[in-house]
């Protein structure tokens, strides 16, 4: 069973609205290699696990737990990039009389304003809905690990590319945190394959990202987040039987299971009367 | 952040394999009105919540937390309906020499044997993948509540129909538990709309299911599960400001926030060498 | 604007339930070349029509109007193939205790029993949902006519194949009527291309179906339905400027615009208490 | 059977081309909660209706009939927003030599120019094709009514948001008419649930839109269109057994079945030679 | 079996990057009527061919072979429109510090930069993925030929519209070559239907494109490419039994089977370090 | 450019029709990890290749070329499993009068008889159409290689599972050939990663299949097909700079580039008059 404490896994750094950044950030949420995919993939793999090698099951479930918090972080980030991104005021009083015309004409995803009230959606950067056929859980452990390794590597790769699409601080801080955490998960699956005999030499991290290009990453690396596995279990776990010892990447260091990071408060989002959200205050009561 | 204790939210009652039951049970997991939809819908609604009426946000998130455990329960149920549903033994030694031919010829979903190793998938009863466009989070609170009410009502309706598709005990126990819990969630959203002024008279429960037709439901009703909201929060929640007082359904009773049910151990699933699952034991090490 | 008289465009011939026939009949409703496609394709083509050659627009809209009635006929046919196809009685009293198990195990589409109460769906014979990308309206008249000709030819072809999938009389009568009407629509689009210069020689009908293989077709051919265009307009139409004169097919005859056929009463479908349909009688009122 | 008189259900107010407005207007045509969905949903619900309570069936079919005319109105509106939105003249003579470059670079849906000749498509505002899985017809009357109520509420909500995306008059007039008609349909389904016992108090309309923000709506409200059900039946209907008496919304008034509105002529759309539409005049005949 | 010589079927004319042109060009690659569709459609039709009229099978396969080379040509064209379309330099040094922000804000498909490293994708101009349901192979020869004729006509039509979306030379040269080749394939399928009796009079080419509007086409017409069928067979083929004699189009000329065109070298594409592509040079080796 | 010699890459072993085997074999053709995916994935990766390390590009293209022949082999295999799988004779004369009823009632994919004339389709074993979003080409070489390795491993895994679904000889021979060839391609991508430093130890082949369970594989292994790369280039290739030396799998042996196998004649498929295929002989000519 699943329990919750109302804390975001990382901070939301304030900056101006940026609807195009919100649109491309959707890839990290609902894209083929986004956080919804990783969350659901590890969920299915841990529930479908066969056999008695519980340490691998605990590894899969442990990363699944963190991915739920990642989905929440990306949803919240997108919401903050969208918050009040239309013109202020109701329709009649705004300069153009059409307060949502500006983001739509500048290339925002119109669904951010039509379906949600300037809020995140289960779609990718091109507006395609998330699709269950992307989840991969075949029950062969090596196959699952290879695919997961591939998934986390693509996660870093795509986040590093999306990082260059806006210099917005809200946007980049979340990306930087997730790049370092994907690196940790890449290490986890690479290490699991090491326990089955592989020697990765200098292959990882994939891609070979230069931390100087993504300065927001530095503090997370300095805290050791690239070699840590956060433990969200309320009971015992065998995850450290896999996730410990020398990092499989050429960057070195020791893998360590640690408590989750200090949480961050969930921001209260402003009401948007011109989007009828939440729409209770404008009732005659 | 999300935490876990390795306990299933309900028991798995043992019975024989039933691949066709597993196929139709997929609707409850990956269908348009299945548990993956409810889980993701309430997740998006709670993350996208606007304004300060935190009690509604806590209600949405509280039900989301239970839905994660429901997804896990349905995955596990499907796995048990599939476990060892092929002929025993390796290909060459089995009577037909084709140990997976029997379930496929009798109408199983072939993907249960091809993609997974006799394991659950993010698809519906017709084999269509889960689709993000089904999730509905528009940020207007009344709109969200009406849709959720509709979603839980359809949940009960479809589960009561699927119940009649097999008399398998593993299958029916899970359905019965979920029918009663959907009823509770129907009560939660109906109650939330009562706080906004609606009088439901005798409309609910929808559909007007007769508990005598679903005998496995009785014990859950007797435990009051149709009027309970399990609390999975590790911190405070305002959920009882909505979920309390007289039930909005004609069946009466008092709504109560309670601790989660006693957990049930996750079964260890057998290895399936002829599906190469998990496939570590047959390596030459 | 669109008006209605409660009459089915053709009769429903009674016969026993046949859930597998209902499943394959879905292709005619929601398939790539089914009646929903023809209906929506001619709707878009007539609304999107450019220029002043109104006779072609009237032709497109005239066939669109009939296609709405075809969709209704196929929905009703599927419903009659499904009506009471589960075991009689409520769950507890039926022989197996699982009154919907039999159709599902024999290859029915489970969604016919889960989503609808033994009722038609906007899906094809493999259970895939109808998809808007199939509709083709590009605004080049010749392109539209060529595609429509192709669509109606495929309509006859697929119906003649589906005809051989069951000898159920409800099933075959509807198919036979539609085969003859698709032939008429094939003639309409072929004739429209004749007005632009083409000589079809002996190409049509495509496929070259032998009426003796589809005996239910004979009466419709004898009534001249293969050369008739039913007129559903309440105002004037120029359709006869295209649809008149010698048939473009080698079977000969004269094309004629005629009044719609005598209507047929819509059958009242029985309630299905074990599917909670319609579910009003079982409320305590 | 379905009959037609060539009249649009509402006027097309002339204004300049606005390709981005056309793109977002597609949500109203082919979106998850658009007019194609309402049309097909009520079509399936009325054809699949079980039992003898014909007044509800007549209600469902009555609204279905109007939705066909709504689809036609939105198609026509989109076409007028697109008409001649490229640069005038053929490729070689235009300033840039690429007369369709401008709308595409300014965020139009390129399919409006590639698939159709500046014409409407069965897709949503993000370009995703309409999907049959959105249609909901489960045969439980209360379930169907709750879903329809939800659908019409979302219809008003999304139209009120889209309204703020452009001040184009063609665009806003159609939206305003549809907002008021969705309100009427919301009243119809709310009233049908009142006949089953519900008291809506002050919940409706949802959302609680302020008519002063949508000035084009006023005249339709003054004509009573928010409390009217247009009757498109050529034979008798029991719709007034449901749709009559006091409005279920807090705005009050009496529900009334009325004849359809005075029709409006369908505009003839200009030819577009540089899109080869309709492409007959440029043949050597 | 399939063999390869590393030559592009047509030249790549150099010009500046044009990400919006790349986006719309995707329709020609992965759209409903694009080259992936024609390639796969003729592949399935030739593999599924029934009966002994080998000359038609050879025609289908012959055009399939050319379509593989067309897919490669369009992929390469898109890549050249995208090459180095971000700002030069790594993130930190670029003017905005976000070198990919510019194309995304100007309406590029963000997937061109996220999924691929400024590279082609199997999607259409609206970003929807290619879908197998578009392929049509029903085994009735006339039906297949009618559909193919329709497909090639739409190919010319859509390419002529896309041509007007940019004056970029890389873009237009590829389109012009493909317009002429689609014309040839239109002639091939029209001729095949002539052998079955049809007289097309002056219907073709569809659309009736004016070569003066597409000046890049002229040289290909002068080389006779509109009446040629390139022969990619290493063994004998009966294609000339269909593809010979007078052209079925009003433009006249003689159909001829010829050797493939002189090939063109595949350009080497530059590395993109800020997209980590190919990402081997930045490893510490 | 692409050239063809009419030879199948492997033999078709005759056996009885088996429509359910044809249905599951579709996974190998149009499934998420089927031959259409491998073909298109390596096609995009080779066309999108960046930089000057041509040996890797030649490897990708070399495997792409073989995959085209694999698609053709699987299409042909499915066709042979379906050939004449309905009852013999025309409708009226057959025992049931419905010659296609039998396969449909026994669980065949009805689309095999409706869309095609007992012919292969671009869909998977559950009838879902092939989807372009499955293709993965991100331009980071290590990412592409890891994904391809994963793809080929899943290919072997799924084929070994499907092998157990029927003992039909046509079915099993094709699967056995492809299992061995996927093993060779697994070796190719594993070797490519070895050139970048990885030591696979005893990880491969994945899964660790036992050749004694798949006796048809033995002859292909004895011919060395698991360590061979067939060369389909008509010009030079650098593929041997990667594909040579010791096999990366624990089974050992030397990797070798070899000529393609001796070809096999394409069987002529019988006409199916009751499916109107090809439908030319029944015209009055």
TrEMBL record, chains A, B, C, D, E, F:
Record-linked Pfam families: Mn_catalase (PF05067)
Query: Any idea which positions bind Ca(2+)?
Result: 58, 231
Q: Which cofactor does it need?
A: Ca(2+); Mn(2+)
For Mn(2+), which residues are the binding ones? Answer: 35, 67, 70, 152, 185
Checking SUPFAM superfamilies in the record gives: Ferritin-like
Cite the cofactor comment: Binds 1 Ca(2+) ion per subunit.
What segment(s) does the record annotate as region Disordered?
84-103, 245-285
State the source organism's domain of life. Bacteria
> What terms describe the molecular function in GO for this protein?
metal ion binding
Name of the protein in question: Manganese catalase family protein
Taxonomic placement: Bacteria, Bacillati, Bacillota, Bacilli, Bacillales
């Amino acid at each position: 069973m699943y329990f919750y404490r109302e804390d975001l896994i990382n901070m939301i750094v304030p900056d101006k609205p940026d609807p195009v950044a919100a649109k491309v950030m959707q890839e990290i949420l609902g894209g083929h290699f986004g956080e919804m995919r990783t969350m659901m993939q590890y969920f299915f793999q841990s529930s479908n696990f066969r056999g008695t090698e519980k340490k691998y099951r605990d590894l899969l479930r442990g990363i699944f737990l963190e991915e739920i918090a990642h989905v929440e972080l990306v949803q919240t980030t997108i919401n903050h990039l969208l918050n009040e991104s239309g013109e202020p005021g109701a329709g009649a009083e705004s300069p153009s009389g059409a307060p949502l015309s500006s983001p739509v004409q500048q290339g925002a995803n119109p669904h951010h304003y039509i379906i949600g009230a300037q809020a995140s959606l289960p779609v990718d950067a091109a507006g395609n809905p998330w699709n269950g056929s992307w989840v991969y859980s075949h029950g062969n452990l090596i196959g699952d690990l290879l695919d997961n390794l591939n998934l986390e590597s693509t996660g870093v790769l795509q986040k590093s590319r999306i990082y260059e699409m806006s210099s917005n601080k809200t946007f980049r801080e979340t990306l930087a945190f997730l790049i370092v955490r994907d690196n940790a998960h890449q290490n986890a699956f690479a290490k699991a394959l090491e326990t089955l005999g592989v020697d990765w030499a200098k292959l990882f991290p994939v891609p070979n990202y230069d931390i100087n290009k993504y300065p927001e990453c530095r503090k997370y690396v300095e805290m050791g987040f690239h070699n840590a596995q956060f433990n969200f279990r309320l009971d015992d776990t065998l995850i450290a039987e896999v996730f410990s010892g020398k990092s499989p990447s050429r960057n070195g260091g020791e893998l360590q299971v640690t408590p989750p990071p200090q949480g961050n408060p969930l921001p209260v989002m402003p009401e948007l009367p011109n989007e009828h959200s939440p729409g209770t205050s404008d009732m005659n009561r």
